[in-house]
Design brief:
Chain lengths: ~120, ~110
C-alpha cells in the first residue's frame, strides 16, 4: 500500500522559512516523479512544484519561483520542499503527491502538513 | 497558463440520481501525437486528500466504481456520476497535465 507522510509544517512569521518533508513507502520511490500541491483553507487545489525521478528536472508555479526549492533523496525515500521568504498567501495545507504515467498525474496523496504564515 | 473552468460551482442531487460536472480548458489539452487528452478528475471528500478518479479524460482509475465516467476532448470535458451514493458527497476537481503550470479547476461541490 502506498503511503505518503508529510511533516515540517507550522506557524511562521512572514519572511520566515520552513522545510517540509514527505516519507514515502509501499512503492519504488526512485521510479516516480513527485510533487507538492497545496490547498489554502476553504479553497481549491494549487499545484506548487514537481521533481523528476532523478531530481535533475524541477518545476515550480510562478508565485513560488525563487522562494521554494524541491529536492528528493531516493536512498531514503524522501521528498522535500524548502520554503523561504514566506508570505501570508502561502498559508495552506501542503500535500505530497506521487506522479504516475506523467509527472502531473497524481495517483496517491498524503494527508498534508499545514503551513500557517502569520505575524 | 491554461485556465480550467468548472460548472456548476455546486449542485444538489438526490441519492440514486445522475450528477454531471463540466470542465472547460482555455486551450486544447489533446496531445495529437498520442491522441490522449491530458485531463484528470479527482474527488476530495470532506477532511480528506484528493483521490484520482479518471485520467486521460475517460479512463477510470483501478478500484473506482463504474458509476463514474468521463468524456470529452480538446477543451470540453464532463464527469458523470450515474447514480449518486452518499459517499460521493465531495468536491470534484478537473486538472490539466498538458503543460506546466499544471492547473486545477475551481472545484464543484456535490451535495445530497
Amino acid at each position: 500500500e502506498v503511503q505518503l507522510v508529510e511533516s515540517g509544517g507550522g506557524l511562521v512569521q512572514p519572511g520566515g522559512s520552513l522545510r517540509l518533508s514527505c516519507v514515502a513507502s509501499g512503492f519504488t520511490f526512485s521510479s516516480y516523479a513527485m510533487s507538492w500541491v497545496r490547498q489554502a483553507p476553504g479553497k481549491g487545489l494549487e499545484w506548487v512544484s514537481s521533481i523528476s525521478v532523478s531530481g535533475a528536472n524541477t518545476y515550480f508555479t510562478d508565485s513560488v519561483k525563487g522562494r521554494f526549492t524541491i529536492s528528493r533523496d531516493n536512498s531514503k525515500n524522501m521528498l522535500f520542499l524548502q520554503i523561504n521568504s514566506l508570505r501570508v498567501e502561502d498559508t495552506a495545507l501542503y500535500y505530497c503527491a506521487k506522479g504516475w504515467l506523467t509527472t502531473a498525474l497524481f495517483d496517491s496523496w498524503g494527508q498534508g502538513t499545514l503551513v500557517t504564515v502569520s505575524s | 497558463d491554461i485556465v480550467m473552468t468548472q460548472s456548476p460551482d455546486s449542485l444538489a442531487v438526490s441519492l440514486g440520481e445522475r450528477a454531471t460536472i463540466n470542465c472547460k480548458s482555455s486551450q486544447s489539452v489533446l496531445y495529437s501525437s498520442s491522441n490522449k487528452n491530458y485531463l484528470t478528475w479527482y474527488r476530495q471528500k470532506p477532511g480528506q486528500p484528493p483521490e484520482l478518479l479518471i485520467y486521460w479524460a475517460s479512463t477510470r482509475q483501478s478500484g473506482v466504481p463504474d458509476r463514474f465516467s468521463g468524456s470529452g476532448s480538446g477543451t470540453d470535458f464532463t464527469l458523470t456520476i450515474s447514480s449518486l451514493q452518499s459517499e460521493d458527497v465531495a468536491v470534484y476537481y478537473c486538472q490539466q497535465s498538458y503543460s506546466p503550470p499544471w492547473t486545477f479547476g475551481q472545484g464543484t461541490k456535490v451535495e445530497i
